[in-house]
Specification:
5 helices; alpha+beta
């Protein structure tokens, strides 16, 4: 059975190709709490000479990341790597993460049970909310 809640693709850039353990720890916390379900993840690195290497997160040697991803859903592939790597600066890396908002499953069921349907789901970046908050503070 496929996802029954909104799914997002997130790209996380690491300008110096340094993946940090605290990201995996937070993903683990979110998965274990039932907030998200990681469906797929890739790690892409562009060397300073411009060559690109990539691997499934489950192949990267991080046992905890492999645990939270499980068997990759196959949503990310070589075409995705090519598209992202094209814009990637030499010497940097990107983590590609596809996850389901499992917390929203109950909400979706309730909406459908009430005869409704979700017609739009828009993600507003935190930076946009921060900017609005700064503008509102100026007005006060």
């Amino acid at each position: 059975m496929g996802p029954s809640a909104p799914v997002e693709l997130v790209l996380i850039e690491f300008p110096r190709s340094e993946f940090k353990g605290e990201i995996v720890a937070e993903l683990s916390r979110l998965v274990d709490a039932g907030t998200i379900d990681v469906l797929d993840a890739l790690l892409i690195r562009k060397d300073t000479d411009g060559s690109v290497e990539w691997l499934e997160a489950t192949d990267g040697g991080d046992d905890e990341l492999a645990r939270i991803v499980g068997e990759p859903a196959g949503l990310l592939a070589a075409d995705d790597v090519d598209a992202v790597a094209e814009d990637l600066a030499p010497g940097s890396a990107v983590g590609m993460l596809v996850f389901e908002h499992t917390w929203a499953r109950g909400l979706g069921s309730a909406v459908r049970g009430a005869g409704g349907r979700v017609v739009d789901w828009t993600r507003v970046p935190a930076e946009a909310i921060d900017e609005v908050a700064r503008e509102l503070e100026k007005e006060d």
